[in-house]
Amino acid sequence: MSPQITAHAAPLRWAAQNDIQTLDPHSQNHSTTTNITGYAYEGLTRYNEKFQPEPSLASKWTQISPTQVRFELRRGVKFHDGTPFTADDVVFSFARIRQPQANMQIFVSGIKEVKKIDEHTVDMLLDGPNPVLLRNLTNFRIMSKAWAEKNKSVNPQDYKAKEDTYASRNAMGTGPYRITAWQPDQRISMVANKDWWDTNKGNVTEITYLPIKSDATRVAALLSGDVDLLTDLPTQDVAKLKADPKLKVLDGPENRTIFFAMDEGSDELRGSSVKGKNPFKDRRVREALNLAIDREAIRRSLMRGLSVPAAIMVAPGVNGHTPDIDQPLKADVEKAKKLLAEAGYADGFEVPLNCPNDRYVNDEEICQAAVAMWAKIGIKAKLSAQPMSQHSVLLQKLESPFYLYGWGVPTFDGQYTLQDIVHTKTSGIDGKGNYSRVSDAKIDQLVTAMKTENDVAKRNGLIREALLRVRDEHLFIPIHHQVRPWAMRSNVDTVHRADDKPEARFTTLK
């Protein structure tokens, strides 16, 4: 038995509906992917059980000045191949994650340079004071410079170009588990890293992750004992699973908002019946689409009560969310029709709608419900649903005029959402995930200000103002914040995580 295991050795079989997109830790900002790669790769910081940043590959940090932070790196840490972790790996990883094809740049936002001081010390030189630095660094994963060079993976995988690299198929970090195999759409296999620098609070020695797209098949696997933990529960089965004495269900809010986004940048809307202009540029059209949605009906009928109808783009638990500004619109078909008529679309129009069918709770069903609601005001949304792996490529190529998406907030701070998917798209970090080409000068100003504002009250005021403007300009159509139940065999003990990322270090099998 390896020294860090606190109880008897135990394998964990874990199923969810969605596979990872890559094993490259800098390529894709996709929750399932970052969850799984986080077993192998670590950041300088990590979250404790209460989502407060704590030391990880950095053992200590010191604020030298408002724009300079010194990180002392943990000594004696080894990568899975036995090579030592040093400052060179941090400097290399910083250069790697900042390349244009990397989709994780948001997590090094505000860092101008990472400078090696000695083998176990680096300085981060900042653009300005950075109130979310330690939270961002939880997802800035460190890769071995030597391993990347040896395996021709110095550059991050270009996922949207369908590039295949050694690092996209193999992982080699410092983390608590070694990923030993990935068979896409079938399974991912991991074993405990016996040389991990930390003590594992759980006793999970092996993990098999099973992406099972079919709701019925996932539930059947849990009921038959073929799976120990299920983190994508069909809403219609939650009550049945709660009543099963062989199982237990942990539920709690997830810090993820499900929403529709519209192409607001193109001069003509791709695939639409409207030619020569873009109806989504008109605030009245966006408001009409918003007013047509009956969120309460979706919560009651489709989600079986397992959702929180949303008005703003961040969920409860995220800094910036307050209940007073998260009061969803009530459906109003007549007002929506009137707004469309005022905008010159009394007869409505056709537009393609893209939707994932294996990523969020009832994602395709939400799209089908919305299509029916929009039809009542004359909007004919032509639905095309496909796996998230294909949906992501479509969005990153900016080829969807109208789409469903979900946005979690790994930093638990509203700046993350506003900077990544609302700020005007740039060639750098700002607007990296803005696939709908929203552009609002006032919001851009507010984001720029909040990035370096250390006064908590002032900064929260900036976040609030930006969230209100996103809401009141109807730049997105938020549907709900997800509630995420997990079901497990009665012998499994784990901690429910608001980021929907189970951690084996907090998991024990009896």
Instruction: Please list the strands of the largest sheet in the order they lie side by side.
Output: 8-9-10-1-11-19-12
Number of helices: 15
CATH fold description of the largest domain: Dipeptide-binding Protein, domain 3
- Flag low-confidence runs: 1-7
Proportion of residues in helical segments = 25-40%
Count of individual beta strands: 21
Largest sheet: 7 strands, mixed
Structural class: alpha+beta
Mean pLDDT over all positions: 96
How far the N terminus sits from the C terminus, by CA atoms, comes to 16 Å
Rg over C-alpha atoms, rounded to the nearest angstrom: 23 Å
Question: Domains counted in the coordinates: how many?
Answer: 3
**Overall spatial form:** globular
CATH superfamily of the largest domain, please? Answer: Dipeptide-binding Protein, Domain 3
